[in-house]
Specification:
- It comes from Streptomyces eurocidicus.
- The protein contains one helix and 26 strands.
- With 321 residues, the chain is mainly β.
């Protein structure tokens, strides 16, 4: 999924300097962003309070939207570099096309994982016809220096490992949870898990004390470590935890996101992750001139133009501001 913000700003993320070494509670509110023709998303990362959680660098939550009489998601071809996109649905379908020739319909609780590596382009759209409701999350994972120029590739994993307890089902989207390992390729120590809680259920998830964590609320009402987290918000939890208590006040859907704090400082602008402003500018120029990122065939529409780079120089700000 693309960042369609026409006023995209340069920011520097990563580094361990602003990662709390102890458990915390930081409730993050979203910024509302229009995506394509008819989809509005709640952007949780980057956030005014925090820019990364482990390798997770970008989180959009959207829906549930009634798109029965709407085109639904329509995101034209756009480029990516230096990251992985994670497509995750609770309702609806998304048709993925990319410059490698991949064509895949992603359905609820199937993992669509695109590794951009040095360069890729793709589009995303609701198929025709499509289901009435669309509800999901789109997330990016920053690639570390050793792997950020890997060959681009796309993975589709319809069957993912599940961890269960009374009233809890945890689907392991990426990384590892309680001994269950996702088949999705991960390049940093990381975890992403979809949590389904039945009304009144209480559970405790095992955590790695060296990871930092956050929990995104997708639906329902739940308490995370005693803190109420409502849909469209995210609770940042810091490091130093070995378990995470959960309680559902109603049937609820959450996403657990975490990983080792990302040591490298990265520059994120529009749909690119690099290490310097100059590198970002070169990627923008390559996209605008039709170089490097390939072509997406089959999408009914024109590709996205990149926004203008800001006139101000890049200023390192760390993981929080």
């Amino acid at each position: 999924m693309s960042n369609l913000d026409r006023q995209a700003t340069l920011s520097v993320c990563g580094g361990r300097g602003f990662v709390p070494g102890e458990p915390v509670h930081e409730l993050l509110s979203p910024r509302h962003v229009r995506l394509g023709e008819s989809t509005r998303v709640r952007r949780l990362l980057p956030n005014l309070g925090r820019r990364m959680v482990g390798g997770w660098a970008f989180i959009d939550h959207y829906g549930p939207d009634d798109i029965a009489d709407e085109p639904g998601m329509q995101v034209p071809p756009h480029p990516h570099m230096g990251l992985q996109t994670v497509s995750w649905l609770h309702e609806g379908e998304v048709l993925h096309r990319d410059s490698l020739g991949s064509l895949r319909t992603i359905r609820p609780r199937e993992l669509g994982l695109m590794t951009s590596g040095r360069a890729i382009s793709h589009s995303e759209e609701s198929p025709r016809p499509h289901a009435r409701y669309l509800h999901g999350a789109q997330l990016w994972v920053a690639l570390p220096e050793a792997h950020r120029n890997v060959d681009p590739h796309f993975e589709h994993h319809p069957n993912l490992p599940v961890v269960t307890a009374t009233g809890l089902t945890a689907t392991v989207v990426l990384g590892e949870l309680d001994g269950a390992l996702s088949p999705g390729t991960a390049y940093t120590p990381i975890v992403g898990a979809d949590l389904t809680l039945a009304r009144g259920a209480t559970a405790s998830l095992p955590l790695h004390p060296d990871f930092e964590y956050a929990v995104l609320s997708m639906s329902g009402e739940a308490r995370v470590d005693g803190v109420p987290v409502l849909p469209g918000s995210m609770l940042y939890l810091g490091c130093g935890r070995t378990e995470l208590p959960l309680r559902a006040e109603s049937d609820a859907g959450l996403m657990l996101l975490g990983g080792e704090p990302f040591e490298e400082e990265i520059v994120m602008w529009w749909n690119f992750i690099g290490r310097t402003g100059e590198e970002i500018a070169q990627a923008r120029e390559a996209w605008m001139t039709g170089d490097r990122f390939g072509s997406v065939h089959g999408y009914d529409g024109v590709r996205l133009r990149a926004p203008e780079l800001p006139p101000v120089p890049l200023k390192p700000r760390g993981r929080v501001r």
